[in-house]
Design goal:
Elements lengths: L2 E4 L4 H6 L4 E4 L2 E8 L12 H18 L7 E8 L5 H12 L5 E6 L10 E7 L8
Helix pairs in contact: 2-3
Length: 132
Amino acid sequence: MTRTLISSGSPFEEKIAYSRAVVVDGWVFVSGTTGYDYATMTMPDDVADQCRNALSTIAKAVAEAGGQMSDVVQVRYILPDGADFEACWPVLQEVFGAVRPAATMIEARLLDPAMKIEIEVTAKITPPAAPA
């Protein structure tokens, strides 16, 4: 079994002892990701903007694993206020409209009250076919 750890550079990864993503045998497991912009360590107030930031961080991790967002097979959305979820739908449609992964939305408190959404995905990367 080959195991690859991927980091986004978030200081939380070292503090809490986790990886942004773990790749095992073509499967990519991306940890719950919030709306931080890790370049500036800021987070917007708007839930849709947080959703967009989280998906951008996730896309970078999936790309580092050798995949793309179309490889996502399952997604979990966690929001402290489930009523905020609908505001994220246009962003989700942009990213997952054609992919339509299996999905679950959970209402639960997050680590920081400023966090309005956390997203976790699983992707399956299929290696390119060998030339004939």
